[in-house]
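Dear U.,

Please find below the material for section 3 of the report. The protein was modelled together with zinc ion; I have listed the sequence and SMILES used, followed by the predicted complex structure.
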Amino acid sequence: MRRATRFTFDSLAVLSLGALFLVLLLWLTSYYRYRVFSHEGRVLVLAIKENAFTEEWLRTKPPTAHDWGLLLPAGAWRFMGIAFAPTTIIGSYSFTFTSGGRDVTMFMPLRYWQLAIPYWLLAVLASALPLARWLAVARRNIRRRKGKCAACGYDLRATPDRCPECGESATVPRLNVR
Ligand SMILES: [Zn+2]
């Protein structure tokens, strides 16, 4: 692998590892701490088509854990924890907010779509690159231990300083030739 390519690969693997830790943290806490975007093992994305009320609604009463269940209609597409509700309209979504010193209950039409992504899927995606990086390092180490070129696997017992096959100068630890 070329030096620049390897650097990019390593950087992305490190970033990916950071993302993995974030995913695991949010995943774990999603079971006992409700966040608007994270609930019981899933990331929740809600896109609302704005109207005169939605901004007020989001500001004063963002969707609760209970609301997510209501907003995901029975006909939503579901597969292995992924759920997707294409544009749906709730005709009378009620919410209460205080305006001018008194409570006002609004019934409003809400046009939205919703997506729920399970954390396990995000964890799998985020761990792919670090895993590939780890496997590559492990393979190089195994080759080195066997006295082979770390880059291409060519047998270096005859030429321990430089690989005649790919030109990689051997950073090989001294071989115990008995
Ligand atoms: Zn080689």
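For the text of the report, you could mention the following: The longest strand covers residues 82-99.

Regards,
Y.
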